[in-house]
Each structure stands twice: as C-alpha cells, then as structure tokens.
Write the structure tokens for this entry.
Amino acid sequence: MDKLIVSPSPHYYGDYTVKKLMYGVVYALLPAFLVSVYFFGIGALIVTAISIVSCLAFEYLIQKYLMKTEPSVTNGSALVTGLLLAFNLPTNLPWWIIVIGALVAIGVGKMTFGGLGNNPFNPALVGRVFLFISFPVQMTSWPTPVASRLQYTDAVTGPTPLGIMKEGLSAQETVPQLMEQLPGYMDLFLGYMHGSMGEISALALIAGGIYMVFRKIITWHIPASIILSVLVFTGILWLINPYDNADPLFHLLTGGLMLGAIYMATDYVTSPMTPKGMWIFGIGIGVITVAIRVFGAYPEGVSFAILIMNAFVPLINKYVKPDGFGEEVKNG
Amino acid sequence: MIKTFPRGGIHPPEDKISAGSPIRELPLPKTVNIPAGQHLGAQADPLVKKGDKVKTGQLIAKSSGFVSANIHSSVTGTVAKVDLIMDSSGYRRMTISINSEKDEWLEGIDTSNTLRKNITAKKEEIIEKTREAGIVGLGGATFPTHIKLSVPKGKKAEVLIINGAECEPCLTSDHRLMLERGEELMVGIRLIMTALGVNKAVIGIENNKPDAISHLQSLIGDYPEIEVQPLTVKYPQGAEKQLIKAITGREVPSGKLPIEVGAVVHNAGTAFAVYEAVQKKKPLIERYVTVTGKNLSTPSNFLVRIGTPVAELIEAAGGLPEGTGKVVNGGPMMGKALNSLDVPVTKGTSGILVIPEEKSFRKPALNCIRCAKCVSICPMGLEPYLLRAASEHKKWDMVEAERGMDCMECGSCSYICPSGIPLLDFIRLGKSTVSKIIRSRKQ
C-alpha cells in the first residue's frame, strides 16, 4: 500500500441507507397487505401489481428519458409509492385508472419537483386524490370483503362504514340506529368492512407501525398526534351529542385514518423535521380530518387533511426550531 | 444510578478490542520529532539548536504566550535539526528533531513507580508546576491545563468533573489508565481540586468499562469528596458540555465556558499528568496511546514518548495489515486521517486507528430525503440538514442565525445520514467562514 486515504471525520458510518429505510416501510406494510388479500382476494393482488409495476416503470422512464439522470428505481421509494397508492384504491378499480394514478403520483407528484426529496406533497396521495376527483364513481365503489374474493372489476360492492354514517345522518337517522347496520368494533379492528384495499385492518396497520417505530424508521410523534387529536376532537363532539356524532373509537377504526396516520403522514419528505413541528402537523391533520368527516361534504377526509398540512410543512420548518443546547438558561 | 445527557446522541459500534491489553512501554525510538506547537494556542519558542545535547525531561521550547505550553525533550541525545516538519495535521510545523542515544533523565525527576500520596503543594504551586510541565488537555483538545486550573476572577468553581467516559469507539487508553494507575489518578484529582478550590469531584465513566468503575469505586474510600458516576454508553457522552449536563444537570449556555455553571472538566489522563508533574516533578513527555484496528494482529495500549513516529507504534502492534486504507490519529468519530506514518505522536494523540481499505470510503451522497434523523440525534439541538444547505448556498448569516457556531463537530449527523451526505463537511465550511466574519466584525 503506497498511499493512505485521507478524509475528514467521522470515519465510521451508520447502517442506515435510503434503501433500507424504504424496504423497512415495505416490510411494515406486509401484514396489512396479507389482510387485504384475505378479504379482497385476487382484486387486491391485481391492483397492487399494476400499481407497483406502473410506478416503477414511470419512475424509470421519466428519470432516464425526461430528466436524463441515472434511474434510481432500486432505492425502494417508487416501490413504497406504488404500494401505498394501491392501499388507497378500491380493489375493483380498472387497470387503466390505476396506471393514470401511478403516472400522476410519480410524474406530477414527485418528478416535476425534481424527484425524491424535493416533492412538497405525498406522491401517493396526489395520485389518489387526482383519481378520486376524476373518477368519483369508480373510486367510491368498494367490493364486499370475503364475498368478492374471486372477482375483480365485476365484484359485488357496498358502502364504507363512514359512507353509511354520512348518508344516514343526513337522512336524519341517529348514530345508535346507524351503528346497528354497521359491523361491530371487533370486525372494524380486524378489517372486515368495505373500504380501500389497505386501509381496512387497524390491527395489521398498527402492528406495522410498531415495527417501524421499533426499527427507528419513523418516530411515534406524527401517528400519536394525529390519533390523539382525532380522539379528543371526536370525543368532545360525541360527549356534546352522542346521537348526531359517532364515538371516537368508530372514527379511529374506520376510513383511512390508521393508514394515513402511520404510513402517509409520516412520509419523510413531506413531514416536519422537529418533534414539535410533527405535533403541530399531526394535530392539524387530525382536526382537518374530523372537520371534513363531520361537517364536510365527503364522508372521509384523511387524504385531503394530509395534503393540506403538507403545504404547511415548509412554514412549520421555518418557524419551529428544536430546543438548542444552552440556548436558554435553564439552570435553577 | 446511571446518568446520561438527554438530547440526541448515537450508538456507533464500540469496537474496544484493545480493552484487555495491559499498557506496555514502547521501546525508545531512534529519533523523535517534537513539534513546538502541540497544543491549542501559540506555538512554543524553541530553546535548542542543531548539535545541542539534551536530557530526557529537559525544557526544549518555551511557552510563548498566555495560551501556550512548554515542550520538553522525551529522550536523551543530540538535536539533529530544528526545522519545518509535517505533523499529524498534515501541515509543516516548527519541529525539534532529536537523535536518541540513551535515557538519562534530568536531575530531580522521580522516574520510579512509587506512589506519592502525600500532598504538600499549595494551590499556586500546583498551577505553576502544571504550567512548567507543559500539561495540556490529553483528551484530544490539547488546551493548556494550567489556564483551566486558575478560576477566572468573579467566577466560582463548584465541582470538578473528571472525564473518563472515553465515548469514542475503539479507544481504550483512558480505560487502561484508570485500571492500572487508579491510585495516582486519585491523587491527581485531589491536586486539581486543591488548585480549583472545590470540594467535590465526580469521575464520569461509560458503563462499558465496569472493571474501571468498580476499581475506582474501591479506591474512593480514602477520598470521600470524590464520586464515581457510571454513564450510559452513548456518543458523545465525553463531550464537555454533554458530560456536565449528564452529571450535574446544568446546561452550559451557548458560547460560554463550563465555569459559567460552576463546573470544570479535565480528562482522566490529564489528572494523571498533573499527579506526575506535581508529585514526581515529571514533565509531560510521554502518554498512553491505543493502537487498534480490526485487522491489526495485536491491538495494544502503549506508553509512548512524545515525538515517536506513528509507524513505530503500528510496528509494535504487529505491523500495518495488508489492505489498509486509512490510518486515523484519534478515534473513528473525531480523529484525523493521517497522510503519512512518519508523523510523530504528540500530546493530543489518544489513539492510532487502522481502518481497512473497504471501510475507508464514504457512501455515495444522495438527495436529502428530510428523514430528520440528523435533527433528532444532534446533541446540541441543531438542524444539520439546514446548516448544510445554508453553507452550500453560502448563506453565512443563516449559518450564524441557526447557531452553527454551537456545533462541536462530533460527526453524529454525518454518521446517521441515510443518504450519505457529508453534513459535517459543509457545517465545518460554514463555521470557519462565519468565525472569519465574526472576527472581521470585531475589528
């Protein structure tokens, strides 16, 4: 050996890589995926496959031919976007709508801003909301779990618990009456209900979330702040009038709340940098979600709430700073 | 109770593979190169010229200002030259080169290993002897110790903290010192306490050194005012401000010195050097150095004369392994990579780390994905991603406003970054530019 390598310290590097973190998210999503396959059968497999393949393909093609950079499809970020987009779709969605969703998610949501790290909005949610507004009929027909296991676009469909609640309340029915038509809490917790592919099972999503916190892929702040603020806000409404307002547990177990709180809002690129900022972000999402669900026109509002709070992230990062060491004299 | 600092921190692999190797005295080198500037502050003025005969322990360069330190010969022999020679920083510095002939110590120096427990020296005498002996902070910062022994007017020292954390991975020289020279260390701590006028001292040790903790605890029976405090293994536990926070709960204000909160921190090695200077009249001419690395055949802890070429240490530890990429002066987190093995061991050399070539390169840097890991682990509560962006875009006022000058360069952010961004490189650039701006503002 003739020459020594010289570089500034540190000379040790940690094990974290972007790829490891992204695949960690993929592993965390596996339980929820298996639950979806159990309830929705081949529809879940087809939607997931189309979403992932088209997200990877668009990422590769745009990087190679439009941006003319070295494609980085193997880093796992497009895989996560594809998986999360599929989780946000009903499992009877025609293949070409999924491809459009993937194009919007990767092309508009991510690559127009310069790719991974530069996008202000969660790409999968950009794709989902675009489809939701463009194809409202297809995006709001949800296959019946278990019964439609062997069907794809021809599946028998039905409304989500949140949809039943919204419809019923506007038809002057009361919450106790409506709860009788809905699956029990245990079914809601396990995922036996109508809904988007990956959002149904709170149990599986929470298990994946605990895995991610344990592996230090995410911190607990964002999920906890969203869940807590939804709990408090819906709890207040429920205490004021339990006939017009569903109880907090119902809100936590239905719709995309767990999926949004644990996997969508915690997207690195589009969430704040400091714990304090994460709390503000999470509380904002929780409050907007409940406001849309209870007072808005749509039965569900997690996607909109996250996208709206995504827009505030640069502002939060600018004004919310970590407590600096020795910044204020705290010695007593 | 095990204590730690609350904010940030990382846990790199500890790799203390030389912890079980007792200290061995390295054979006398044929030539020593002793730089005149081995400490923080002004370099010392050489007192010898080519051809002069010097004895071991003789003063060969004199402290040249308030922040400066004396330099002594570490061998007996003839001065070969006084010239600019490259040191471990990679710069050429005024260096006294001595051909070693024998080991004849200057008269009056007690070179025996007899423990001298009885303290007769008064405050001023301790400070003066420390100054004469050229003692500097041996943890690596190399700030002249006698300055830290004199409490500034208007301030009061309440507690002395002895840094035995040794939070840098790989290094074990302080560990061995605490195990093998514990009794001397206790006397050294007593001396520093006398100089500072404090009646409480706490030795902070990370609890990956249980043998050192229990050994020192067995010795404090004679010293009721000294306490041993086990600390969590977390980097940078041994950083001055973090150590004070862990042990006393007090936060040194930004830009201020520890004395602001009544604390003074000295490294365990420094306390031992003070013992030798005051009780044995021995100047700082040798120190404990860890020589380690996974591929090294015998990772060791040596007692090394200042000025010994690094190559001789590596030779004594089994020779440079095949496929070595980097040799680091210090630990893997804050040490400096050497560009030559001819450079000498100086007062600040706590270890020599040999890293194989495949571990010598950084990961390729990717886009920042804003994962916030750098923010969550920064022990100073900074936002490294932001400081990096500010430095990269030359927004120096932003580096200053975002408290970039509080960065102590522990390297945790570069360590943790999943995108392999060299955050600390950019922050260093920002810091050096901002400090120039601050200096020009004062003029």
